[in-house]
Specification:
mainly alpha, Helix Hairpins, minor pseudopilin epsh fold, 3-stranded antiparallel beta sheet, 49% helix
Length: 209
């Protein structure tokens, strides 16, 4: 079936004061809806119409050349934002636990160093994009992507991604992207992130670190 906008799993104002209500309304209802609508329009009449978004993004080369950029951008925006809403929550912040915490400690020596590295990737992303924690089939890795490029394009499993497009923060933080990134960790839903990690390990048949 065609892509649909997933409901926000909490109230628009639930992430205050770190992310304001108006930003959440515009970001979810306008920007994400536009990605859904544009992806569906670009896919209409193609062999990938009605396929899951993961299948679409890993089979872009089967589309006509004049469709690929629109699908890459808009289906990518859909899958990225669908993850983004789920890994935030009103009772966010704190620290991860269990296997995810162990993997972070093994690779970065603790959560603070992971945050610094992810924030640095986000600050240095020129223009618009995302900063990611992914599982690449061998373990956790960090990088950023431009625009709405999804880790699926690299055959990676997204564990945690922070949107650094201006529409994600400009109403509250203006041009202060570092302040937004620092504040974002107060709304991260570590239980959801840990579930992504466990699913990645299970699906990829990969070691946890």
């Amino acid at each position: 079936m065609a892509f649909e906008l997933p409901p926000l799993p909490y109230d628009y104002d639930a992430l205050e004061p770190h992310i304001d209500e108006q930003t959440m309304r515009v970001h979810h209802d306008k920007h994400h809806q536009a990605y859904v609508d544009n992806a569906n329009a670009a896919l209409e009449g193609t062999p990938l119409a009605d396929k899951p978004v993961e299948h679409v993004l890993t089979n872009l080369e089967t589309l006509p050349d004049d469709k690929q950029a629109a699908v890459r951008n808009n289906a990518g925006g859909h899958v990225n934002h669908s993850l983004f809403w789920e890994i935030m929550g009103p009772d966010g912040g704190g620290e991860p636990s269990g296997r995810l915490a162990d993997a972070i400690n093994d690779l970065w020596g603790g959560l603070d160093e992971l945050k610094k590295a992810m924030n640095d990737n986000g600050v240095k992303r020129f223009g618009s994009g995302w900063t990611w924690l992914v599982h690449d089939g061998t373990g956790l890795a960090l990088y950023s992507t431009p625009n709405q490029d999804s880790p699926l394009l690299n055959d990676d499993f997204a564990i945690l991604g922070i949107d650094v497009w201006e529409h994600a923060y400009y109403l509250k933080y203006q041009n202060r992207r570092p302040d937004y990134l620092e504040a974002w960790w107060s709304v991260v839903n570590w239980d959801a992130v840990a579930k992504n990690f466990d699913r990645a390990v299970a699906e990829l048949g990969a070691p946890a670190t």
